[in-house]
Automatic annotation (TrEMBL):
Family, per entry: Belongs to the hexokinase family.
Source species: Myiagra hebetior
Keyword ATP-binding on entry: yes
Protein name in the entry: hexokinase
Pfam family, one: Hexokinase_2
Gene: Hk2_1
Reaction(s) catalysed (UniProt annotation): a D-hexose + ATP = a D-hexose 6-phosphate + ADP + H(+); D-fructose + ATP = D-fructose 6-phosphate + ADP + H(+); D-mannose + ATP = D-mannose 6-phosphate + ADP + H(+); D-glucose + ATP = D-glucose 6-phosphate + ADP + H(+)
Enzyme Commission number(s) of this protein: 2.7.1.1
GO-annotated cellular components: cytosol; mitochondrion
Length: 920
């Protein structure tokens, strides 16, 4: 029988693996918004989003409500890595009956304890003086926490049942009780703060704390975790193996769906005592466990805790002994009536029995003190049972720990995890083999993780002070961060103003007489129609001015558009040679292409995407204003580009060339999307630069003769603000970035939005934040001082939701920056701020466009589409969503949909040619 009993208490390894899996599933359930309510492992958010970094300093008061006691602690931190905090304690016994009395009386009592403690205590560092003394409240009951200082009690436990507290915010209750004390409203108290630091007068001197403020509430498990954090050694898991059992750990905040926080990490209180309440542990329960559960005050609940909590271990042993006696396996022929009484066999008895490795003298003593008459054999068997019960408890703790370790490792997307685990509690301290079992079993179950166990010093009091200190440090940091980022955050009113200014500049640009002074040029394109889908035929297209020079043939059929293309290199000698040389080279490329494609015998209409600034005077007539992007070919500026191409064709005796249109890439983008969606009357580019075009009424285009129909206008909006009209939104960072470009004062709008600049803006912010000691511990690497080192594509990576912060660190490590976890979180916020502003400003520009189109057409609602191109728009994870959301807010009467353009330059050029042929 004894062997059978021992076997039933021993859980096989495969079963432990399965149990770990269940625990992980339950953890996910507890974190998910949909399943949280039914989850047994509650996974409560604590709103503690950071662990101490050692810079915390000041005086902190902690009040801990424990079983039968209130503990008050004054902790002084010196910002020295928290190595040697000063602590003064006082313990107050709870008066008889208060645990079951009125809630208000309980909180009044706690406030009195605070008052009395402060009256008697002088802080060890009187040089630190604050107006208010922050208080951390350790409240070891299940709460629904919605902020660090807001927690509604869900249910009492541990013998407490005070009325009028469940459902209330316990922080508020404690604060009110303290306020009552401070104003002397509760009799006796008087102005107790006046005696703080030995001041006997009733006047408060400047620098004295005039107010105790409850800034944080936490569970004792969290306190333990924080206690174990010292400099350079964050502790991210804490386990308390005591009367009950619980564990908390730092989870990725975005996974804690029940809290609003999405960035960084948050400490989650697992409340794992209820694991198994849904039956997942049924097959490991022994008849002894069932008896313990039936006799408890809450049968069927906290099933895991009842296997591992020290409140229950003695009971399990007691029931095992009763059963074994009945089976005549122990205590045969002796009186065991004493074992019938609940609670006689305590954890202390159990620990005394098992910790004694040599012989059974101690076992005999313990059992005799209990009133039993054990034989030598009984002593041995009782010891075996006790070892089995406690060993199982330690093993089950290891299962829980392994589940958390693997969960952390997986969700942080790491191959291996090294982490410190703070441990505290009666079982951990009292059972000599606990640590060894915890270590070895968790290692077996989660071999990818390496947990270092740290004993918690000074219990949860110091930890609670740390939580409070960290909360204050973060609040101060938040203020400083907001000060830096504030100017980059635009309000709805700011954006409306930008929209209005854009509208104003558009009108100026369109006006015949005002055009010259407008920052938005509003260039006519001579494209009067978007595709209607009836275009057919084969076309040639040229794309010059992007990264590559390309020649394409585009086939527009009923079934859709197909293309073939060839990329040609333009040697630097030709780019910087003569105009004739350049255009001759282009013709050579066309001939080569036509030959390869077997097109030499046909004369195909040709569309030319030419991405350089041009003054267009006809669809096939455009004067080059200036070369950019490394081109300097002579004799071209001021000339008609189409004519230059035609002349080259003549020189090369290529008669089969029919150039019908020259266009800008925004126009190509609009046209290529317009083929599939006739409502597409806007083109937008957000790539290296930014620009837009749209269909304007001819009667509004003052720079072109004629009032009939519409014409596409190339806004050249990148230059918006070059006349100073946006000066009020430029920040210090924007000015620095502008000054270091090759065209200072030019393209000011573009410099707030496009890919060429966003990374650089972020870099400037990082430099300032580092200088203000908000990042990288105040140390900027020399790499970070390098211009353009922070690429815009980094923003895309960093802002990916759910990206493991490790990857952010990888980017930062490449920049030779040693980033803490918090640095990574802040960096992400910086990137989000910059890219959000870019998207919002782009939306403000677009809002001006769509509203103007709506007014032009006299519509209450406009439904229109935008064709978009550009890598920033296409690859950034939030840019397009932010743009669309802001546009809805700024232009509520317009329904705007967006289409990504595919190969706008090639396809668009062909379509411009096609439409020209169709309308001709
Ligand atoms: P262009 O505008 O010259 O035709 P693109 O549309 O490809 O070229 O845009 C290039 C710009 O896109 C570059 O300035 C670069 O910084 C930016 N970029 C490249 N990759 C990404 C990315 N993953 N996320 C955001 N921006 C990017
Ligand atoms: Mg492009």
């Amino acid at each position: 029988q004894i062997q059978r009993a021992l076997r039933s208490l021993c859980i096989p390894l495969e079963r432990l693996h399965i149990m770990k899996g269940h625990m992980m599933e339950d953890m996910c359930k507890g974190l998910s918004r949909q399943t949280h309510a039914q989850a047994k492992v509650r996974m409560l958010p604590t709103y503690i989003c950071s662990t101490p970094n050692g810079t915390e300093k000041g005086n902190f008061l902690v009040v801990e409500l424990c079983q039968n006691q209130v503990r008050t602690v004054l902790v002084t931190l010196f910002g020295d890595g928290n190595m040697s905090p000063q602590m003064v304690y006082k313990i107050f016994d709870l008066p008889e009956g208060i645990m079951q009395g009125e809630g208000e009386a309980l909180f009044d009592f706690i406030a009195q304890c605070v008052s009395q403690f402060l009256a008697e205590t002088t802080p060890s560092d009187t040089s630190i003086s604050e107006e208010r003394l922050p208080l951390g409240f350790v409240f070891p009951f299940t709460c629904r926490q919605t902020q660090l200082d807001k927690a509604e009690l869900l249910s009492w436990s541990k013998g407490f049942s005070c009325s009028g507290v469940v459902g209330k915010d316990v922080v508020q209750m404690l604060q009110s009780a303290i306020n009552k004390q401070e104003t002397g409203g509760n009799g006796g108290g008087g102005n107790w703060l006046s005696s703080w630091r030995g001041w006997k007068s009733s006047q408060l001197a400047p620098g004295q704390p005039s107010h105790v403020e409850v800034v944080a509430l936490m569970n004792d498990t969290v306190g333990t975790m924080m206690t174990c954090c010292t400099e350079g050694r964050p502790c991210e898991i804490a386990m308390v193996a005591d009367k009950g059992s619980n564990c908390c750990f730092m989870a990725e905040a975005y996974l804690v769906e029940t809290a609003e926080e999405t960035s960084g990490r948050m400490c989650v209180n697992t409340e794992w005592g209820c694991f198994g309440d849904d039956g997942t542990l049924n097959d490991v329960f022994t008849p002894y466990d069932e008896s313990v559960d039936e006799e408890s005050s809450n049968p069927g609940e906290k099933r895991f805790e009842k296997l591992v909590g020290t409140l229950y271990l003695g009971e399990i042993v007691r029931h095992a002994l009763i059963a074994l006696t009945a089976e005549k396996a122990v205590f045969t022929g002796t009186d065991i009536t004493v074992l019938k009484e609940k609670g006689v066999f305590t954890i202390q008895h159990v620990l005394d029995i098992i910790n004694n490795e040599d012989g059974t003298t101690e076992v005999k003593r313990v059992l005799e003190v209990l009133g039993l008459q054990p034989s030598e054999r009984d002593c041995g068997r009782v010891q075996q049972i006790c070892r089995a019960v406690v060993g199982r408890a330690a093993t089950l703790h290891a299962v829980g720990l392994a589940a958390i370790l693997s969960y952390m490792c997986q969700t942080r997307d790491m191959e291996t995890l090294m982490v410190n685990v703070g441990v505290d509690g009666e079982l951990y301290k009292g059972y000599s083999r606990f640590e060894e079992i915890l270590q070895s079993v968790s290692r077996l179950l989660s071999p990818e993780c390496l947990a270092t166990l740290l004993p918690s010093r000074d219990g949860s009091g110091r930890g609670a002070a740390m939580v409070t200190a960290v909360a204050l440090r973060l609040a101060a940091q938040r203020r400083a961060v907001d000060e830096v980022l504030g100017p980059l955050r635009l309000t709805h009113a700011d954006l409306e103003k930008v929209q209005a200014l854009m509208r104003q500049e558009m009108e100026k640009g369109l006006g015949k007489h005002t055009n010259a002074t407008a920052s938005v040029r509003m260039l006519p394109t001579y494209v009067s129609h978007t595709p209607d889908g009836t275009e057919r035929g084969d076309f040639l297209a040229l794309d010059l001015g992007g990264t590559n020079f390309r020649v394409l043939v585009v086939r527009v059929t009923e079934g859709g558009i197909s293309m073939a293309s060839e990329i040609y290199v333009i040697p630097a000698a030709i780019m910087q040679g003569t105009g004739e040389g350049l255009f001759d080279h282009i013709i050579d490329c066309i001939v080569d292409f036509q030959t390869k494609q077997n097109l030499m015998t046909q004369t195909l209409p040709l569309g030319f995407t030419f991405s350089f600034p041009c003054q267009q005077v006809g669809l096939d007539k455009a004067l080059l204003l200036t070369w950019t992007k490394g081109f300097t070919a002579s004799g071209c500026v001021g000339q008609d580009v189409v004519q230059l191409l035609r002349e080259a064709a003549q020189r090369k005796q290529h008669s089969g060339l029919q150039v019908v249109a020259l266009l800008n890439d925004t126009v190509g983008t609009m046209m290529s999307c317009g083929y599939d969606d006739p409502k597409c009357e806007i083109g937008l580019i957000v790539g290296t630069g930014t620009n837009a075009c749209y269909m304007e009424e001819m009667k509004n285009v003052g720079t072109v003769e004629g009032d009939q129909g519409r014409m596409c206008v190339n806004m050249e909006w990148g230059a918006f603000g070059d006349n100073g009209c946006l000066d009020h939104i430029f920040t210090h960072f924007d000015r620095v970035v502008d000054e270091t470009t090759i065209n200072p004062g030019k393209q000011r709008f573009e410099k707030l939005i496009s890919g060429m600049y966003l990374g650089e803006i972020v870099r400037q912010i990082l430099l300032v934040m580092t200088e203000k000691q908000l990042l990288f511990q105040g140390r900027a690497s020399s790499k970070l001082q390098t211009r353009n080192i922070f690429q815009t594509k980094f923003l895309s990576t960093i802002e990916l939701n759910g990206l493991a912060l490790r990857q952010i660190r990888t980017i930062l490590n490449e920049l030779e920056l040693d980033a803490s976890f918090e640095d990574s979180v802040l960096l992400r916020e910086v990137c989000q701020t910059v890219s959000l502003r870019a998207a919002q400003l782009c939306a403000a520009g677009l809002a001006a466009v769509v509203e103007k189109m709506r007014e032009n057409r006299g519509l209450d609602r406009l439904s229109v589409s935008v064709g978009v191109d550009g890598t920033l728009y296409k690859l950034h994870p939030c840019f397009s969503l932010n743009l669309q959301k802001t546009l809805k807010e700024l232009a509520p009467n317009c329904d705007v949909s967006f289409h990504l353009s595919e190969d706008g330059s090639g396809k668009g050029a062909a379509l411009v040619a096609a439409v020209a042929c169709r309308t001709a």
